[in-house]
Amino acid sequence: MTIQNEKKNSPNPLFPDDRLTPRDRVLNILDHKEADRVPLTELSMDSAVIAKYYGSKQLLAILNSKVLSLAKLIPFWRHLVGFGMKSKAIIVSQMKGVIDLYSKMGFDIVFTPLGLFPTKGHNREWRKKILPDPRHYVDEFGRMFQLIDTKYGIISYYKDGILKTPELYDKFGPIDPDHPARMAVANSVLKLTKNKEGREYIFPIPALFGVVESTWEGMGLTAFSKYVRKDKKFIKRVMKDRADFTITMAKKIAHLDYPVMLIYDDYGYKQGPFLSPKNFKELVIPQLQRIVDGVHKAGMKLMLHSCGNLNEILDDIISTGVDALHPIEPTAYMDIFKIKEKYGEKVTLMGNVSPQDLQDKPPDYIREYVRKLMSKLPKNGGYIFSSGHSINPAVELDNYLAMRDEFKKHCYYEK
To answer: To the nearest whole number, what is the mean pLDDT of the chain?
Structure first.
């Protein structure tokens, strides 16, 4: 692969030689066709240091425990926190900042979450029981998180699930697909990703949740494991509810100008899948198949973000017809080169520079691995470049820049 020399007046500051729009580039690659170059993106960019390098500031970078603790002195703080986290204006403002940062970084895709709003956890009935201070919040799947200071900045940590019984799940109530912030964000992002001339300079892809992560984290691992063993009907009911919500949202956003969507749904950990292959096939695959079919029926392609070692269940995942798989974690024994060889004609691969390597390996090591990826994966399309998960706060700036610059040297297809 060689870099083209002809200038094309590209709006992308990192790639002035681009001939295609980000949208057309990504759609070509998803159709397993070669484009002008390999697309570049990240699922999320959580490093305040790297954001600062590009002249941007993240919300969590300006928060700390002292600020959040002071919020507790404000009367009705639980109501205020809940209002802020699901406010259309605040969410859109944050997305504007993300889009600005991603465009400065030269990304082709910006993922737009249309979920996770704390619409239930901050309702009057639940507030005093489950939210001890402003550093905690509960999302609409029943998952409690805590904002914790680290040397890298403030990070949101999963603490536990609160829906530990069928009775609590029923009392918590269903997720509301008609929450006004969802479509407000979806519509606003389509406008925010266009310049003054109306040209789209970064491709927005809406993101929702699948059925595994949202189910077990909403219950907590102990309760989830108990019900997988003793009451699979309950697990199936919850997973179906999660799938129904995602399918409903796919139908709603299909009326907008979104040809692709993504679902987050981690199926594994470093050594293997969360569920046995048998349970995965029984519990998860029917709902994943429903989501894939629903998204395709709505006229969109589906990307799946699923961390961990998926080797034992990969045949079943690919059989559903997902269009792209992210992040192909190298530290979880996911060999992207073997996966490309076996499934490359069926699914687009996204990844897989290890965030761990970006934290502690020397820049030359990063460059060498990027060269290996770019020499073996882009042929005939079907590959989108990114890290093996996201850019977390521990990623070294020098290593990120080494990855970016080496990718830039090898990203263009030959004419």
So the answer is: 89
Cα separation, 280 vs 317, whole angstroms: 10
Q: Are strands 136-138 and 143-150 parallel, antiparallel or unpaired?
A: antiparallel
Query: What single string gives the DSSP state of each residue in 45-65?
Result: B--HHHHHHTT---TGGG--H
C-alpha–C-alpha distance, residues 267 and 329, integer Å: 12
In angstroms, rounded to a whole number, what is the distance separating the alpha carbons of residues 260 and 213?
Answer: 21
Name beta bridge partners: 161: 143
pTM of the model: 0.91
pLDDT of 4 higher than 50: no
Rounded to a whole number, what is the distance in angstroms from the first to the last CA of the chain? 9
- In the predicted structure, residue 308 carries a pLDDT above the cut 60: yes
Q: In this structure, what are the phi and psi dihedrals at residue 295, rounded to the nearest 5 degrees?
A: -65, -45
pLDDT band at 155 (very low <50, low <70, confident <90, very high): confident
- Phi–psi pair at 45, nearest 5 degrees: -125, 100
Q: State residue 203 phi and psi, 5-degree precision.
A: -90, 115
Dihedral (Cα; 340, 345, 261, 11), 10-degree rounding: 80
What's the confidence (pLDDT) of residue 150? 72
Answer whether residue 316 is part of any domain. yes
Q: Give the model's pLDDT for residue 62.
A: 45
Q: Is the pLDDT of residue 10 over 90?
A: no
In this structure, is residue 196 part of a structural domain? Answer: yes
Q: What CATH number has the domain bearing residue 95?
A: 3.20.20.210
Judged by DSSP in three states, 13 sits in coil
362: domain range?
A: 22-76+89-114+179-410
Number of domains in the chain: 1
Give the H or E element holding residue 401.
helix 397-410
Query: What distance in Å separates the CA atoms of residue 332 and residue 339, rounded to the nearest whole number?
Result: 13
What CA dihedral angle connects 120, 113, 58 and 269, to 10 degrees? 90
56 domain residue, yes or no: yes
Which residues are CB-neighbours of 17 under 8 A, at least 6 positions away? 3, 4, 5, 6, 7, 8, 10, 36, 412
Distance, in Å, from the CA atom of 106 to the CA atom of 53, rounded to the nearest integer, reads 14
Q: How many percent of the chain have pLDDT more than 90?
A: 72
* Entry field: residues in the chain: 415
Residue 158 lies in a domain: no
